[in-house]
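Follow-up to my post from last week.
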Amino acid sequence: MKNLESQIEELEKMRTTWLLVFLIGFIFWDGFRIVTNHFPENKMVNYATTISLLGWLTWTLGLIQMFRMGYKVKKVKQAAQILNDELVELNRLKSWRIAFITVVLAQLAIMALSLLSFDISGILSAEISIFIAVTVALSAFIYYNKSIANG
Amino acid sequence: MAEFELKNTIKVERAKRNMTQAELALMIGVSRKTINTIETGKFIPSTITAFRIAKAFNVRPEQIFELVSNE
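User reply:
Got it. Predicted complex:
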């Protein structure tokens, strides 16, 4: 039983760590990709492509580790149920709610800027929404899980 | 309208049986964090989990959980 306890604890820590890596990778990859694609006159563009590529590599590493973790979870009896118990499900729902509200607010801000004669294309608006949705949902989930872990 | 709080005696029941949070968690199929948050009153469990906890201690759910008015 002790062995199973430590395996579950290890898988929980692994999930938080690799979600964080996944999030950081996505922020740099997608954030700098948006800068490169939509603001080509910006001075940052020279560095943005390299940073975006490094971000993509970090994101890919996080993704591979998440798949590896999924394989480990299958090998440990009860692990999938325990790692996705009702508290985790609640944290997921809270994270999705926060992400949804943030995306709606971002869309309102984009609409307001458009009314003030800032030319924001539909594709940029969609890309910003996806960026916000992913980063806010993941950050909120990591935060809720951490705050529980710290009591 | 009166506000209510769900009090529980999980910690006491665990102590009686010399059981850790992790051991109880594995018995009912949730994480140790979940047991910790239920025990400290930060998270209200589902009915199924409440019954499972009671079953793990071999007592009735109302012996573990009690609805207390804050007034």
